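To: structure desk
From: M.T.
Subject: fold request, one chain
Message: Could you run this one when you get a chance? Sequence is below, nothing fancy, just the single chain.
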Amino acid sequence: QVQLVESGGGLVQPGGSLRLSCAASGFTFSSYAMRWYRQAPGKEREFVARITSTGGSTSYADSVKGRFTISRDNAKNTVYLQMNSLNADDTAAYYCNTMIYSSNYWGQGTQVTVSS
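Reply: Done. Structure tokens follow.
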């Protein structure tokens, strides 16, 4: 079965950096685009970044453009989210996502808290 397992979250000071990872299994990872979403307390889940199956194209939410970088290693079945210049508005649970045959799959999420 499809499994997505996020890791790398934690507490970071404003201006700091974190790298999130999402290990995928149960499907042909290299054939599917991958996405990161996030959900802050009391808010709806929102799109953060997307990467195509080959990694040749990426897209970002305006709120993270220039600060976050999505990448993938198809040999390791892993997608990453490098987050720089973090601020309090980035505090949220971050989720890895893929869509296979119109079905959405989600990981359990990893919490990122930006605070001094």
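Reply (cont.): The mean pLDDT is 97. Let me know if you need anything else for the meeting.
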